[in-house]
Design goal:
Number of helices of chain B: 0
Largest sheet of chain B: 7 strands, mixed
Structural class of chain B: mainly beta
Strand content of chain B: over 45%
Radius of gyration of chain A: 13 Å
Largest interface: A-B, 26 and 25 residues
Order of helices and strands of chain B: EEEEEEEEEEE
Strand content of chain A: 35-45%
Shape of chain B: globular
Distance between the termini of chain B: 39 Å
Shape of chain A: globular
Distance between the termini of chain A: 35 Å
Number of strands of chain B: 11
Radius of gyration of chain B: 13 Å
Oligomer: heterodimer
Helix content of chain A: under 10%
Chain lengths: 110, 120
């Protein structure tokens, strides 16, 4: 079970859109739609942002959206705001009732 | 709404067993629909799923840690616990307890996390 692959960093200016990728294998992302995303500000616990690739829990702005193609899932943040600056982690079901996380992407709002 | 709170020693001696407890409020750990999980984050690093216990009592673990961990539940106290044995400096991390939503494989609620340092 290897960690999912995310770019270490991403950036965008306020108002712009940025997309963060998360690449796995046919055993995890490619095998199901159980992909979720989490936002983590420094010193805080992660926050639940997306589940089942595209669905948002209550209270998450619709500026956050998700997609998946093959073994790669993506998180898109539209209309970037200063408070979106954080680390973002993807997570996938990996079979056998196990989960695997990505290494995380630091999003900087320029 | 459900809240989770980790507790346990912040400092553990190498080769010893680390024990953490998560106290859950706002929901019963024995009710259906949840896996009660442990996740850790090494300093400055990403998240690592450790394992979880289902409300049925079944446990599932990260294959890389499986030989050293156990997770148990005390329904009378609405708590679940993590034991990690033979700890080394590589086990120094912030440990989070969390609720994974059954059927969604998504971590819907997190505790605030507790730092455990392995140090002699």
């Amino acid at each position: 079970q290897s960690a999912l692959t995310q770019p270490p960093s991403a950036s965008g200016s306020p108002g712009q859109s940025v997309t963060i990728s998360c690449t796995g294998t046919s055993n995890d992302i490619g095998h199901s739609n159980f992909v979720s995303w989490y936002q983590q500000h420094p010193g805080k616990a992660p926050k639940f942002m997306l589940y089942e690739v595209t669905k948002r829990p209550s209270g998450v702005p619709d500026r956050f959206s998700g997609s998946k193609s093959g073994n790669t899932a993506s998180l898109t943040v539209s209309g970037l705001q200063a408070e979106d600056e954080a680390d973002y982690y993807c997570c996938s079901y990996a079979g056998g009732n196990t989960l695997v996380f990505g290494g995380g992407t630091k999003l900087t709002v320029l | 709404q459900v809240q989770l709170q980790e507790s346990g020693p912040g400092l553990v001696t190498p080769a010893q067993t680390m024990s953490l407890t998560c106290t859950v409020s706002g929901d019963s750990i024995s009710s259906g629909g949840s896996y009660w999980s442990w996740i850790r984050q090494h300093p400055g690093k990403g998240l690592e799923w450790i394992g979880y216990i289902h409300n049925s009592g079944r446990t599932y673990f990260n294959p890389s840690l499986k030989s050293r961990i156990s997770i148990s539940a005390d329904t009378s106290k609405n708590q679940f616990s993590l034991n990690l044995n033979s700890v080394t400096a590589a086990d120094t991390a912030v440990y989070y307890c969390a609720r994974v939503i059954d059927g969604l494989a998504a971590v819907g609620r997190w505790g605030q996390g507790t730092l455990v340092t392995v140090f002699s």
